[in-house]
């Protein structure tokens, strides 16, 4: 790119950045919006410093697709599989706290990547990033990755409530405004449909497993068994049942409330399939249908999302 073009595009980004950061809790970095409350440009700039390990357990999911739920499932399954006794469990937890490792790869301070090297295997790595922004070493080392999706309409509604609750958007922003931003990719992590299109390229990769929020809600036992098998977690039927209990919405909400009531209220909300009908107008629903049909419906991953079942009346 010529220097002039580069500076013009930088100027444009800067203008947009000023528009967004001045009115809400988001900032623009390298063409995508991020939540300023947990992310900073310095960390995003050196994401490639992250060194993946082949035995890492990687969870990728767009915001509001149920990433906290599935991350907790992975934590429980990994712990059961590792057969850690109480003391070992405590030490592992302490290590995480001591090292102040933020829960998602793109969150926190830039020095975290160095600290993450001190974590014992198997580490559970989480991210909301789109493939082309994910640190390169994840694709080089090829650890097993679980990629989570949720129907785009429920994701939008969940995202709206979360953004309001966490004050990521101005208080006067209505659902209609948010919907327009969501559909045009002017929300953190960009347009959800772009994530579907990009991840579809990895659909046949052996180290990548895809699952959906709806599939896990419909048959959690089966979903957990598939996940355990994929990551080669050695767990019993009892471990699966215990994991279900420990990761129920109520259990996670109660635990979340002990740590941060405001965040817990936004993170653990209704936890249902089909809440989109509470906010989508007919026109918005048709607009989403049209965009999905145009960009994602024909892809293998698009078909996996069972759009007609979960997004149509
Ligand atoms: P709703 O807002 O539709 O209720 P994320 O963790 O990616 O931020 O996603 C948040 C969504 O997952 C919220 O959806 C939340 O209620 C739901 N969720 C969180 N924990 C859950 C659980 N244990 N069981 C089912 N859904 C859960």
From TrEMBL:
Pfam families: Sulfotransfer_1 (PF00685). Keywords: Transferase. Residues 55-299 form the Sulfotransferase domain. Gene3D superfamilies: P-loop containing nucleotide triphosphate hydrolases (3.40.50.300). The keyword Mitochondrion does not apply. It is an enzyme of class 2 (transferase). InterPro entries: P-loop_NTPase, Sulfotransferase_dom. Its EC number is 2.8.2.-. Belongs to the sulfotransferase 1 family. This is Sulfotransferase. The lineage of its organism: Eukaryota, Metazoa, Chordata, Craniata, Vertebrata. The gene is LOC140701267.
